[in-house]
Amino acid sequence: MLSFALVRWGRRLARAAIVAALSLMPLVGFAQPAPITISVNIAYAGIPGGCIWELLPATHSYDFVDPLARPWDSLSVVFDAGYEPNQSAVTNLTVRINGQQVGASATVNNPTDIFCGGVQAYTFTAPSMLPGYHIGGHNTLTISWNGWLSYSNPGYALLTFTYPPIPPIEFNITDRRPESERRVILTNSEPGYLYPQFQQIGAQDSMVPMYVRVTDPATGNPQVGQTVYLRVTDPPDTAPYKNLPQNVLSHVNDNDGPPATIGGNGIAAAATPGVYQGVSGANGKLDFTLTLDPHTASGDNYQVEAAFSEFFPAGATWKSGTLTAWKRIFVEKLSALRNGMPLDQDAAAGDVRVHLADNHFNGNQNNGRISRGDRIIFVHAPAIDRRNALAGWYKEEHNVVDVERDPNGGFVVTLGTRNGKTITPEPLQRDFGRDPSKSNEPAYADWVARLSGSTLGSPDYFDADTRLIWGTGSPFIDAFVEYYILPDNPFGFVPLPHFGGFRQDILQTYAQKWSFTSAGTPNAPNHQLLIIADNDTSQAQDAGVTISNVPGETSSWVWRGTIEDSVKNNTAGVADAEAWATKTCAHEIAHEWQTNGAFGLNDHCKADTPTYNDPATLCLLANADAAAQAQRANGIATFHLLKIQPAVGPPYYHSEYFGIRTRLDPFVP
Amino acid sequence: MKKLLFFALSLFAAVAGLAAPAQPIVANLTLPAETVLPGVPFDMTVTVTNNSAAQASVGLIAQFIFTLPDGTAFSPPRAYDRLEPNPNPMGPTWVSLAPGESRRYFVNWRSSYPNIFHYPEFSGPGTYELKIALTASKPGEDYVGEITTNTARLTRAVTPGEDEALWRQMSATLKGKWSDDSLSNSLKGPAILREILAIHPASAYYPYAVLLEHQIRPPKPPTNDDVTRALAAAERFPSSPVYPHLLLLAAEMTEGFAIDALYRHDWKARAEYLAAAERYYDEAAHKIKAPVLRAVAEQERNSARGAIERDKARAASTKIPQ
Questions:
Q1: Which ipTM score applies to this complex?
Q2: Collapsing DSSP states into helix, strand and coil, what is residue A601?
Q3: Res. A611: pLDDT tops 70
Q4: Is B255 on the interface with A (CB under 8 A)?
């Protein structure tokens, strides 16, 4: 984008001022901090002097520090500007803080002279706390516009903050803090991943250290030795499917799990059940910990209410911000090679020959046979029973110099390169071969595959976008589940062999062999396994499968190869393989939660089941039929909300969201 | 009049024969053991024969079609299985047969369970009929289409006393939903399996427990004692349907020790285990009557022999022939 500036002679005295009026404004008897104004230098590119005429669209950013480390009520930003004579009015003069727009954009229709004479003040006001604003921290003021803007250099933007009254009891956690900071992770199974802001202070599952500060309403001074009563309340559920305009299911006290409790040093049960009490200490502070029950459902939410009486009189209680329980799941994603065949004999480091039962690569090589000049890769994983686990996962790339048929069956492949009559052997650096746990099962052996280039690259293995699991549009976020895709194996990226099929026992065992986290087993709670592979040998054109025949274990498979094949041959009427695979990732991971057993359709709901918010869109887990198939690549991953009338008893609502939320944490298959 | 009727019947039979031409490929299902205990897997062998004068291919993806004792049909739609042997798992799902050629395949359940054994419908006592539909994925031009085997009869019976009590326990444990893989592939089955190993050594379920213990998750590395126990169980239960599998299991575990020795570069141990594995496979090849499993033993014996020869070559020369 073309951007340039003109700097003309002329100095104008900068209007630099820091206005900090200290007026006490009592409100219903509470102390209130005075408004504070700070100035932010908006000098052009750090070069002071003159009056700037700048043509853009332009954007300039300036850092400033929050002045009081308290939530504010409103913020105004004022600075002088005009437009360059002989040009036209400047449009879209916009102010943002940390990317959030402050007030409405303005049109600048006052021309200036070359000395910035004629500038006028423009005011932008945020009537409430901006999302993402860093209280007490560094923030970024951004000014942008279209046209020739004229402003003094250096000039100053004046930021004026007004503050709400300080209540007698004030919580450190308020609803002014971002929702993401007020989450309570039930179980965090990967220590390298931090808890949300407040929970990280104690860094313990299901527990959040909090405090209240007691203030003298008349003076604003901290009150020490004041008895404070606390109790946990349950505000209405915030999930969109429980707050439909025509069907509001949320209400106070609608949590699925048991009540949370309050504890800590000096915290004791009061006479009234469910009420706790403590005495404010230094600086009027009373520390306590909110603890969620192990049977808490994700999405259950809480506020801590405080009062000076254990009877919590109306109008004399104060509440914390809302804290919400979240599950946290880690996905180990594995990618399979696009062709290959297993070794049927063992080869030790130093060997230059390997033995194969067959010579067809299959997969994207179709009937291609291994032959001289091929660039190939060997991949290895530890034994199923992990007897050789220490060596880990590894891969090696080689050239094929010769392939000959073994008179006793199979083929012998010699590794190396040929130059004329000179052969340069390429000994294996590591050991490769069959799996000692199940030597008779070819799927579990180390495999060899043909590379498309000189080294392993993305065209050689299957992959799929996982954003519908963890990102915008994920149905799991609406079920209050954070998803993280784990980085590669600590041994480095080693793709899986080109293997797929329909025998679930083999698929699950194979998945466990190649998994480095034991995801999908009781040994790795809150870990799920996602494998992007190919099911080329199946006549069933499923796009994926999640293992359900192996009690206590599971894994989700996305048949990217089958999807691509189907798109290529137009067998399913879906044209976008990437979008189809992306949605299939979310579909299969949804199956891990096993929410739809009641329908008897392999964990699907009926084929014509709509999403909770759009009758024309089918549920992510709708059983496959032509209509569902047509929506496989629409990028929408949303669940249903059905009112079920049982033969006996009252009606109830069924949703995958509820099944996910109420499943016991940590998740184990 | 009688002659006329005979003529009419003969003509009808001839026309009927013309209307249903012989299939180019015939698939024959046999059950090596036609009577098995309730609640355990069983062997199935499929022989495909090209009776035509041209090359023809037949699918190797099996779908199982049961007739239950009450006469109802049962065929779970997602319980496919790939017949074995199948050395290249992602290779073609069909086999092309020359005119007159015949090949034997089997349903392998020794190292992993086919999906079909996860269904409880045909696990209890009674007489069942079974046939298998064979299909293929992306078959060649000479593919004959889906064909179905003959119907085989499977009887599930348990002798009164200890075995009957065990079956009742098994069935009750899973509330009547016991399937053939439940001894090792269910949440409560492994406890019964271990109970059988501990206090029911005379039960006909005992050799199954010895075999299937190795499929309990999570897997644990076997020991020499496991080999000894498999061979001892085979010796004590020579007429059990799992007899050949116990012999093969002992050999496979020993071969696994040899593979593991390679990863440890313990060439002495590897040589000893390979020699033992070859011996066990050879004994199995001589003792197993079922042709298809005998062929497995022979092939694995030859494979072990080949590994021994390659190891000797490796040891004899650091310079590998180019």
A1: 0.91
A2: coil
A3: yes
A4: yes
